[in-house]
Specification:
The protein is globular, with a radius of gyration of 14 Å. The protein has helices spanning 13-17, 38-50, 54-57, 80-88, 91-103, 114-134, and strands at 4-10, 30-34, 63-66, 73-77, 137-143. The chain has six helices and five strands; from the N terminus they run βαβααββαααβ. The termini are close together. Helices cover 45% and strands 19% of the residues. Strands 2-1-5-4-3 form a five-stranded antiparallel beta sheet.
Length: 145
Amino acid sequence: MAVTLEFFLAPDDVSAAAMGPRYRDHGCPAAMFEGFLPDEAVLEWESLFTGEPIERIARGEPRTVVPMANDGFEVFEVGPALRTLLAGAGALRLGEVADRWAALESRADDEVSGEEAAGVLEAVGALAREAVRTGRGLYCWYFAP
């Protein structure tokens, strides 16, 4: 799967909408990854943290900032519930969720190993802590041609 993505902090939707693969030197805290669909991943993460079904979480989440068009590019905001869960999770809890996320059958086509899953959640968790601390939003852009 040729997906490139970046979780990043931005002060608002207008700033977040300007981010993307052509504007990588934006100076905002960020973490770049490849190989998974982040809009699906954030729903799976929240479900794994809370035990709620994905169908219930997916009602309005994640909130789209730049809808995907024919170019395969989208920007969305990580919802406040997941942002708070990620920010408050310690390394042990993040590792547990990462292991469970890596084991999901829905991820069979993704290119992220269990070890990489832990790295993803640790990095996004660190961004969530910074977002909560500074009052900025946690966003993600991805490009899936």
